[in-house]
Amino acid sequence: MSLLSVKEYKLYSNFLNTLAKNLNKFYYSKLNKTFVISNKLKGKGYDPVTTSDKAFEKFIRLKIKQKFPGHQVIGEEFGHKKSTSDFTWVIDPIDGTRSYVIGNPTWSNLISLNYKGNPVVGLANFPVLNKYYLNTNNKKAYVFENNKRKKISVSKDILFSNIKVSGAFHGAVSLKQQMKIPKVLKLMQFPTADALSYSHLCEGKIDVVFQATNKIWDIHPLMPIIKAAGGVVTTWDNRDAVNAGNILVSANQLIHNKMLKLLKPVSK
């Protein structure tokens, strides 16, 4: 069921389409230079944040405020701007900050529009790769590259025996726990590259992606794109991915069910 009208989808997808282009201009004119890195965990681990993360989020918040001043905003770096609106923007200014820090081009700007808590329009923008992914309603998603728009869809008819799997535990599953899921370990043959892996699944380039410890800003912007491209997304214990946490995305329900079963020993 569609949560937005045709007119609303057009309004918000057009806004994100323009924002993607503005984000690229902003990056190359203001941020493509030396930046400062801080560690959020201060000796208790490593969770980097850069001056670029904060600059991107301020830029995105400003654009939202100019166009939709009454809407709520939740961002990774600057928290929750509350209002009575049913619409909330969820922002990850740089998804893949570790990649950004070491110069990998797979980092992105992730933005979703949520209606009554449900992600309905999402953007995954990759400035260095010069492309972005966006859904225009609940049935159509596109990749925009070289000034061209191409409709994307998952490999719906792929057989489980032929699936390409990308997975990452991000330190959340111990080696002892991993020994309980040998079939999953054997399937993990393809690298995980931040939000780009989820985006590649939407293009049919990969068939299963799972990651641990996703926050809402890591997955909400990708959920509408995944669903519009025909994919299935839940947590490892088959709850709504809107809750974030350990996320599983598959090309079809049959594959998803098999992966849920294989991940069950570590999904509790």
Which key features would you list for this structure?
268 residues; alpha+beta; Fructose-1,6-Bisphosphatase, Chain A, domain 1; D-Maltodextrin-Binding Protein, domain 2; eight-stranded mixed beta sheet; five-stranded mixed beta sheet; 29% strand; globular
Secondary structure topology:
Layout: H1 6-31, E1 37-39, E2 48-50, H2 51-67, E3 72-75, E4 79-81, E5 87-95, H3 97-102, E6 108-115, E7 118-126, E8 131-135, E9 141-145, E10 148-151, E11 165-168, H4 175-178, H5 182-187, E12 188-190, H6 195-202, E13 208-214, H7 216-219, H8 223-228, E14 232-235, E15 245-250, H9 253-263
Overview of this structure, please?
The chain is α+β, with helices and mostly antiparallel strands and 268 residues long. The protein folds into two domains: 146 residues, 2-Layer Sandwich (Fructose-1,6-Bisphosphatase, Chain A, domain 1), CATH 3.30.540; 107 residues, D-Maltodextrin-Binding Protein, domain 2, CATH 3.40.190. 33% of the residues lie in helices and 29% in strands. The protein is built from nine helices and 15 strands. The strands form three sheets. The chain has an eight-stranded mixed beta sheet, sandwiched between helices. β1 and β2 form a beta hairpin. This is Inositol monophosphatase family protein.
